[in-house]
């Protein structure tokens, strides 16, 4: 399978890597995948959405719990949720009228592994 | 020390927060500061630069060690290093002809704390 095909068939946000930054240099391919997760988190609204979802009772939040927190339109919130979803950070499930979001731990686990400080020489 | 030199060696971007995402929602101000760090890491070249610096012998790398790795111009590499420096992720020190960079663990520590999975309910 070519890298191109692999990128197409793997689920969005499946990084499948990485060693701590300080252990060995990231490959170009690993860096491309991982940068998507960091980029998705590199926005204050998306970070707050992520923390609102992660810290909500039961570990999931309805869109209706999220929109009132921000002075932003529904479509703007939906756009940010889509970016988080495409980065593999959250998943949504429609139940009745609303979509409920929950944090997917795998992408956060990748971030956590990469920034592990065990081998950072200070 | 000139302002120019001071900018080169002093870390910028002190986040000074945060609780794990799943413990309590980030405040707007915390999210703004933290997003700067994630945004700086949300680029494949910058992630690779960070890992090249962190994993280099002695925990520091000369600009001369970094430029040959990428098919990018010196000014482009310098721009990416500046973004990492302004986010408080690296610090540079001029010694003779070259600037040597080292990873600052505080910003990575903030990222690590925020993505801590201990309280993520899956």
UniProtKB/TrEMBL annotation, chains A, B:
Superkingdom per UniProt: Bacteria
HTH arsR-type domain: residues covered: 26-122
Coiled coil: none
Keywords: DNA-binding, Transcription, Transcription regulation
InterPro entries the record matches: ArsR-like_HTH (IPR011991), ArsR_HTH (IPR018334), HTH_ArsR_DNA-bd_dom (IPR001845), HTH_MetalResp_TranReg (IPR051081), WH-like_DNA-bd_sf (IPR036388), WH_DNA-bd_sf (IPR036390)
Pfam families hit by this protein: HTH_5
Protein name (database record): ArsR/SmtB family transcription factor
Organism: Pseudonocardia aurantiaca
